[in-house]
Design goal:
112 residues; alpha+beta; Ribosomal Protein S5, domain 2; four-stranded mixed β-sheet
């Protein structure tokens, strides 16, 4: 059974890249767009520029955990694409969480 709150279709990604907005932070880049649904959809990406598969998977895990910790304060009805920068390599989860929180605060999506 597929989870409904995960972005999968190429059309969705293309729409977010073309129509959505982006914010850059130290460890991540955030692309976002309003989706008019009663839940958020998200995707966590790390390109080969970040490192080998172990490092890329760790970067995605760090972003997923950070999102999970911030999720209760995030407004509903958005699509998010979180992209890891190559500066994320040796960072702790707390550092990634701060970077993600700063990006979400800049977008005014997070409720404080």
């Amino acid at each position: 059974m597929l989870k409904p709150n995960v972005l999968r279709r190429k059309k969705d990604f293309s729409t977010i890249y073309k129509v959505g907005k982006s914010i850059g932070e130290r460890y991540i880049v955030l692309f976002y767009r309003k989706n008019n649904l009663d839940y958020n959809r998200k995707a966590f990406l790390a390109s080969k520029k970040v490192g080998n598969s172990v490092i890329r998977n760790r970067a995605r895990r760090l972003m997923k955990q950070s999102y999970k910790e911030l999720e209760e304060n995030i407004s509903i009805g958005y699509d998010f694409i979180f992209i890891a920068r190559n500066t994320i390599k040796n960072m702790k989860c707390a550092d990634v969480k701060k970077s993600m929180e700063a990006a979400l605060i800049k977008t005014k999506i997070i409720k404080k």
